[in-house]
Amino acid sequence: MPENTAGEPDEATGDATGGSPAGPEQQTPPPRPPGEPEAAADLPAAPAQAAGQHAGGAGAGPPPGWDPKAWQAYQVRRQRAKSGAWSVMPLAWAEAARPAPAGPVPTAVLLAAAAAGLASGLFLGDGLGLGLLLAVVPAAVGAYLAARAARRRARPWSVAWAVGCVALLAVPALRDADWPSTLALLAAVLLGALALHGSRTWPGVLLSPFGFADSTVLGIRWAWSGLRSRGSGVDRARWLPVVKAAAVALVLLVLFGTLFASADAAFAGLLDGFTPEISLGDGPVRLVLFLLGAVLALAAARAAVAPSRWDRIRIAPGKARSRVEWALPLIVLDLLFAGFNAVQLAVLFGGYDKVLQSTGLSYAEYARQGFWQLLWATLLTLAVIAIALRWAPRSGAGDRRFVRVVLGTLCVLTLVVVASALRRMDLYVDAYGLTRLRVSVAAMELWLGLVIVLIMAAGVFGTRWLPRAFAAGAAAAVLAFGLLSPDGMVAEKNAARFEQTGKLDLAYFQSLSADAVPALDRLPEPRRSCALRGINNDLSSRGQVPWYAMSLGEYRARRIFRERPVRASYEVCRTLGTFHSRIE
Length: 584
Fold this sequence. Notes:
Blueprint (H helix, E strand, L loop, with lengths): L67 H15 L7 H7 L10 H17 L6 H20 L6 H14 L1 H4 L3 H20 L4 H6 L3 H18 L7 H28 L1 H10 L8 H23 L17 H28 L1 H8 L3 H28 L6 H36 L3 H26 L4 H18 L2 H16 L15 H4 L6 H16 L9 H12 L6 H7 L8
Helix pairs in contact: 3-4, 3-12, 4-12, 5-7, 5-18, 7-18, 9-12, 10-11, 13-16, 15-16, 15-17, 16-17, 17-18
């Protein structure tokens, strides 16, 4: 069978060709499924090998390689597009972005999906850690092989998204804390979807992760039809020798590995550390993980062959308003921001003592009172900017300059608000120490400031790149948040504060993860043992963790506890006292 060909999205228009199985000798682009065409000229053409009869004939048969049902559905959608029956309602978005039918599934893709399922069942049953990367690598290889068989070229942005996705998946292998790992997994899903679907507009960036749902169903059907078809390239002569060789290799490994493990205790210990422990009780869980890994690998490969085209969704801009109607509320808001920022600058240069005396607030109350309000003010400002852009006047170059000046002023003033909020948080941390909540909201405020800077840059250089820059900025912030180890930062800051003030909230450290152990290990005894007691008990309750499920943070903590065990008793720790500090 000839290879499947699939076009790539054009960087200028965002359109793409679908995946029709044309032979290598036929270079006519295959049809793409209709999205939201503006005119009949934007409709895809039929394959050249169909001799023109498939261009509009509903009674004609499908071209070679097309499933009859898929061809019939394609024709219906094409006729609807010609008649202008498409709507821009949310219910029609999935239909507009629906991927094209795919050609035969390559044998290598099926083997990669099986490998991904096997790795998921073996390495993810005990936790994440390095096992997550081991399970994702076969799926990524399968997607690459599927795209290569479909003749999809790798775009620079797609390569960048794929590299970022792998980097984010490395966070659970480095950090023991669950919250940065969870954020990294969510961001990895976004970047993986962008790498597969090649989205560049706001609907594409925001809706790309939902394409996995469609690709999962299509991937299962794609693999099943390939396995059932004798002419799909998955014949026994090709895959049966591979299966036999793998089975023989497995039998030899088990047989001789058992003999060598019985002959040498050191080798047995090495095998115990590197091979997963599987029991009958884990069977159902391992089976579910195997199926989940294989299905997700097939979904990724199916999306790599013929991705969903969320960029075809067109959202009409709002009705343009007059300058007075549009600008008056924003100018009033600019003046309010300017007045607030003037007060903040006066406080900065005049000192906080005078303000505290006039307001009657304490040092911490003043910092805590304003931070959350300023955080919400920043979020609401972004919403105001988005709405204002939708209804902005746009009759000419003068209107565009006017919009840039008004919104640019609002962005600059908002950056001052962001700086004021971060300054208040810094004051509060100096007074009461750093916590998970405080480092999280400070990171959130920093990221909002980055978004405002990107909006300002888009006003100068254009908005075409803004959706992808927004996604890249969010993923970079999540990656930096995980690599910097927030639990380690909390422990480091509080340990340094103890050296300066002698105050330490020992009770709070019981909730931290193993990432905090290196910093807390530098505390003097018995405070060191009291600070590490909760983390030590948590690691002890986990028992022996295999190498593929252990993060680097947990490995370091276990090594420290082996070298310097926790010795202080609970009674000793209770007599030391605590100094609680929380944002209410």
